[in-house]
Amino acid sequence: MSDTKLETQSDGAGVVEDLTFGVDEKKLVRKLDRHLIPLIMLLYTFSFLDRVNIGNARLYKMEADLGLVGNQYQIAVSILFVTYLSFEVPSNLALKPFTPSRWIAFITTAWGIVATCTGLVQNFGALVAVRLLLGAVEAGLFPGLNVYLTFFYTKHELAMRVGYLFVSAAIAGSLGGLLAYGIGHLEGAQGMNGWRWIMIIEGLPSVVLGIVTFFLLPNDAENAYFLDENEKKLMVARFRRNYGDTASAQHFSKKDMYLAFKDWKVWAFCFAQFGVDTMLYGFSTFLPTIINGLAKWTTAEVQLLTIPCYFMGAVTYMVVAWLSDRTQRRGVFVVIFGTVSVIGYGILLSDSSAAVRYFACFLIAIGLYVTVGLPLAWVPNNTPRYGKCTTANGMQLTIGNASGIMAPFIFLTAEGPRYIKGNAVSLSMVGMSTCIYAFMWFWFSRENRRRDAGQVTGQFEGMSEEELAELGDESPQYRYTI
Question: Smallest Cα–Cα separation from 213: which of 105, 71, 350?
Answer without folding.
Answer: 105
